[in-house]
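Need the bound structure for glycine, inputs here:
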Amino acid sequence: MTETGWTLIVHGGAKEIAPDEEQAHRDGCIEAAEVGAAVLRKGGSAIDAVEASIRVLERLPTFNAGYGSALTSEGEVEMCAALMDGETLDVGAVGVIKGVRHPVSVARALLREEHVLLSGPGARVFAEEKGAELCDASSLIIKKQKEELQDTVGAVALDSEGNLAAGTSTGGLSNAHPGRMGDSPLPGCGYYAENGEGAVALSGHGEGLARLMAAGRIMAGLQVKSPENAVRATLEQMERVGGDAGGIALDANGCPGWWHNSPDFAVARIDSTMERPLVWLRKGEDIDAHG
Ligand code: GLY
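Answer from helper R.:
Posting the output first, comments after.
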């Protein structure tokens, strides 16, 4: 296997970021990118880097994933997460899981198993069997619920062996019906990764993204378009189904791109030529002031 450069992009969700939350979004995305980059710099795999980055975002109350997730109409935290390995096409995903600190690591535990997606109490039992960090479901609720519409975090990476990976994690939509799942645990909707093709992770209105099979459209778009244009072309289709969204993508060689139709979409990017990540809160933001 030829050694190539590595690349990682993380995002903190397609949403509106309140002015007093901007720094926390920048800091959180930078930390997530740095933790994932540390894995890749040591020659670690894309799937390990994506998991490590998403664990940071799940730990921070700023993001709608893990601790600080949005609440259902019954006032509970129900989470979804997924990982996909572009080398093997293995998928591990959990839906509507409660009482685990890091849903993405439960998805990781499922990655090499036969099943692709476990949900509800069965997913929690699986987490326990695999020694995942369990917690009281209410301990994931933060005192001050956020006012802005919150959404999914994600990451995509290419490692130095040329393998791609994608991952997502979310508390879902605020006030959703208990048991509701959006795009985030569904391969081809909220994420996809395939070596030689590309990798993508989405955020936003899960029903719209699922109806569009958004990740699948972006993967097809990567055959003929740049990553940014592939994401953009699919998000323009959101008008047909309604809702805001954002997405990050890599092509087969790790060339990155991202786009959003939400007001904001915090993104951090780093590759093997860079010492530190660059971070944006929205497309077109002048990063000289912050990068
Ligand atoms: N995109 C996350 C959700 O709709 O659940």
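Comments: The pocket of glycine is lined by residues 151-152, 170, 172-173, 182-184, 203-204, 206 (CB under 6 Å). The mean pLDDT is 95.
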